[in-house]
Design goal:
eight-stranded mixed β-sheet, 495 residues, Arylsulfatase, C-terminal domain, alpha/beta, five-stranded mixed β-sheet
């Protein structure tokens, strides 16, 4: 009994460092609320960090974050109801909601949605934002107490980013737009560094730094481009010249960045440019972390590093993010700070929208009833803990998917044609071998299909998989629309 009590005391001390401790399951806020620094990259896949297994990309500062915190190796986005995946992904992140519960198409932050920084403001936080917002001017104004070098759009030339100063009215009139003759990551880094260097208030801060890199156009400064030569770039093991069937979005803008069929050399060049952008943003993250250290706030600051979605970059014959393969829905997520173990990794299945309820628990503020995400606190206490047994994905009305720890199912309905993919993720993490048509796995397909339908029912997805048209209005694929307009297909390799 004495040994048991000692263990309980040790556990309680660790839990208190994060959230305060009354009992094993009861949460209360620590006396001094932690600062929060949130670093978000744009279109960065989970497989693009050196210390997590990719020795071809140079990411020393992301590596430091991994070494100093807990890495969620299976963090995901839910997907998107539009081709602009970044927009609903960031809306889900900021609201903690599932995509079906957000407003409009593309799903965005509604006036009735409480955002993460908005709730932190009620808990006494100074909230600061810089970089890409992509979710409406009014939503930014009510979320932040101040900001600088704010980009309201989705993408731009990295050397000509339309910027705004903070406008508490939320109007952000276009005639107030300004430009700086600097690369996008530098612009946002400088705003973050200035904030950290000059912050002297007693109240805690939430600083949100949202980069536009490594989103295309991939135009990293020459110094970073020189780090990568195509001769040293490995072709992805799941490379294909083109996707084996029409997934509904074969000729969307992202896929038109390279012609079909994809060549090995062209894909290597794309990856090299992609890595250069990642190294560039990594360098600027390092400068922000240095400023945090020099500010005197580091010891009481939780750092969250994540990306809004992944990217195919030549895998499965695709380039973009309008799909449900791991390279596009699985993202980096690292959390470090006071009371959080260093160098830990967890395979627990999580979403980006789990971050909001987690921070609400840490700070000790009431969570909005609209939050669909789950708190990550059990995993922060024990990296082997599990908060859900499966995750579910969607893309428009073309694609639906679900994955467990070991299996993944993706279903497609494109122009009335259904296609099913089943992958043994444990044995086939690159999703190369489709087992759906193998009679040996018929029961597994049925089991995963039932799980997928269960997820859709409880999340408000109106798709019914057993119906011929999934019970929804059929969206025409890009290929079909081009055919109807008499536009050529040969130039994009679609036959």
């Amino acid at each position: 009994m004495k040994k048991l009590n000692q263990k309980r005391i040790v556990l309680c001390l660790f839990v208190f460092a994060i959230v305060g401790c009354k009992t094993k399951y009861e949460i209360s806020a620590p006396k001094k609320k932690p600062n929060i620094l949130f670093l978000l990259t744009d279109d960065q896949s989970f497989s693009t960090i050196n210390s997590l297994g990719n020795n071809e990309v140079y990411t020393p500062n992301m590596d430091k974050l991994v070494a100093n915190g807990i890495t969620f190796t299976h963090a995901h986005i839910m997907g998107s109801n539009s081709g602009a995946v970044c927009l609903p992904s960031r809306a889900m992140l900021m609201t903690g909601s599932f995509v079906q519960n957000l407003a409009k198409v593309p799903a965005a932050i509604d006036i009735s949605d409480k955002t993460m920084p908005e709730v932190l403001k009620t808990a006494g936080y100074t909230t600061f934002g810089t970089g890409k917002w992509h979710n409406g001017r009014q939503a930014f104004a009510r979320s932040f107490t101040n900001g600088a070098n704010i980009f309201m759009g989705g993408m731009s030339n990295h050397l000509k980013v339309p910027l705004y100063n903070f406008d508490e009215t939320g109007e952000y009139p276009r005639n107030k737009t300004y430009y700086e003759d600097k690369f996008s990551s530098v612009i946002f880094r400088e705003a973050a560094v200035d904030f950290l260097k000059n912050y002297e208030k007693e109240k805690p801060f939430f600083a949100y730094v949202a980069f536009t890199s490594p989103h295309d156009p991939r135009m990293a400064p020459e110094a970073y481009q020189k780090k990568y030569n195509t001769s040293n770039i490995s072709l992805p093991k799941n490379f294909l010249p083109k996707h084996p069937f029409d997934n509904g979005e074969l000729i969307i803008r992202d896929e038109n960045l390279l012609p079909f069929p994809r060549t090995e050399e062209a894909v290597k060049e794309e990856i090299a440019a992609y890595y250069a952008m990642i190294s560039e943003v990594d360098d600027n993250i390092g400068k922000i972390l240095k400023a945090l250290d020099e500010s005197g706030h580091a010891d009481n600051t939780i750092i969250i590093f994540a990306a809004d979605n992944g990217l195919a970059a030549g895998q499965h014959g695709l380039l973009g993010k309008q799909n449900l393969y791991d390279h596009s829905v699985r993202v980096p997520l690292v959390i470090s700070g006071p009371g959080i173990k260093k160098g830990e990794r967890t395979e627990s299945l999580v979403y980006l929208n789990d971050i909001f309820p987690t921070l609400a628990d840490i700070v000790g503020v009431e969570k909005p009833k609209t939050i669909d995400g789950l708190s990550l606190l059990p995993i922060l206490k024990d990296s082997k803990a599990t908060i859900r047994e499966s995750v579910y994905f969607l893309y428009k009305n073309f694609q639906r998917g679900v994955r467990t720890k070991d299996w993944k199912l993706i279903k497609y309905l494109v122009d009335g044609k259904k296609t099913t993919q089943l992958f043994n993720i444990k044995k086939d993490p690159l999703e190369i071998n489709n087992l759906a048509s193998d009679p040996k796995y018929k029961s597994k397909v049925e089991e995963m299909t039932a799980l997928l339908q269960e997820w859709m029912n409880k999340s408000g997805d109106n798709v019914q998989l057993n119906e011929p048209d999934w019970g929804v209005k059929v969206i025409k694929s890009w290929v079909t629309m081009r055919k109807e307009k008499g536009l050529p297909l040969d130039s994009i390799g679609v036959h």
